[in-house]
């Protein structure tokens, strides 16, 4: 049943600004203090713009200016824009991990919208954790909201080659370690790899999550593919501003869009993009906020039938700028055809089918056809077994084929510092057939599940030409990373999961085909090791870190806080 359009008296902001009492007098007088007048708010929806710009977030450097485009669109449609800054979460700079603060941003977003006289929200983000953080908060608040992606940066350049952030950093760092890249060449790359504002231009977590936001229906069509430096990005921002005002009058909320079908589309698109493994954690968290039961098994089930179509690094050759010129996400979704649910509704009021109808692919090497795919199916696979009873993930499309079915000897590092102290040693007892195992990299152990999962290849092997080997951890890895990395092992070692019991010399078997990970140690021996295992003290004794440790879920649960994932609706604030 269609909803009736709201009247001005139905707006949330009316309770703050539209009544004739002492408290409303105070609200209005303070707005006047800032230069606003009754014409700004009378019978107009107030639109909160949650902006994650900051001076130390390179992905969002342009959002300081783009917010003016959003405001212009809101004003053009008769809304009253108010910018509300939020935590920025710059992926390269925030330590120990931005994942530690994703839920912080989700809480901040939800409470900014709840505590202020806001009728609708424009969410401005893009750097890895800002997309899920903003959306999680908006889902829980459930007022009309639209997401504005920051967009990828321009492609990098060095010595006549295109450079992709992350992916080529790891690649050429190993070449430097092997003595094949000079310090001068390395410095030239540093100058040429990041040529504009915007997110990583590989299919890293940022590009993946922006694409997922569009696939779920939370952005305008094509918004996720637009390069940050393109003038069309400004026009998209203004369009989003105009659209959110209409969404408020129609009371069109995230709960109307984020149905189980929306998340199924998100998973299918994730697989077709060859997207970041990090997306699994974030999509599960968003789904559960929306009341949709979603498990690791659902990813594996859908992924088996969806080929990788985006020939974008790290699974392919090109970069996001090329993907955009080739037709962008709508074109790729159109190629997927019946693998998507076309009747899913989106923020522009149209269905996915309507939005992608007629979208063309202009370069079939960048966006492949169904008979010329990058990888047949299961760009991300979920493995289970006695080493990961609750599952773990691998990105087979980014791994050397020989390592997708493998059995080898474990070389165990008890934590990141132990690994860093050993990995460059010439006398490290390791071969290319061994399996590197990193413990204490999970949600509680990291803390914050840092991107340590792409363990460096030992220097002695790099010098012999080895560029990939099997690596296992309870941490994550950058979506720009590649290689045979098994991640998100659950439960994590810090809480006594089986990963904590692995010792150097144990044999581990993995099979992508069988979706299996198995530690070849007897149950009796594992029981002995478990009885001797002692938990480490908590990483934090106070503050947000302590709250994180006490309430964070495991990777297969989406790493949300137990008190945020579900529960009764938070009441609207009393206006006193």
Description:
With 576 residues, this protein is α/β, with parallel strands linked by helices. It folds into two domains: 44-153 and 196-356, no CATH class; 381-532, Glucose Oxidase, domain 1, CATH 3.50.30. It is built from 22 helices and 14 strands. An eight-stranded mixed beta sheet has the order 7-8-12-11-10-9-13-14. Strands 2-1-3-4 form a four-stranded parallel beta sheet, with helices on both faces.
With strands numbered from the N-terminus, the spatial order across the biggest sheet is 7-8-12-11-10-9-13-14
| Strand portion | 5-15%
What is the domain tally? Answer: 2
Alpha-carbon Rg, integer: 24 Å
Q: What's the story with the biggest beta sheet?
A: 8 strands, mixed
Number of strands: 14
* Poorly predicted residue ranges: none
Task: Write down the overall mean pLDDT.
Answer: 96
What are the defining features of this structure?
about 575 residues, alpha/beta, Glucose Oxidase, domain 1, 2 domains, eight-stranded mixed beta sheet, four-stranded parallel beta sheet, 22 helices, 14 strands, about 10% strand
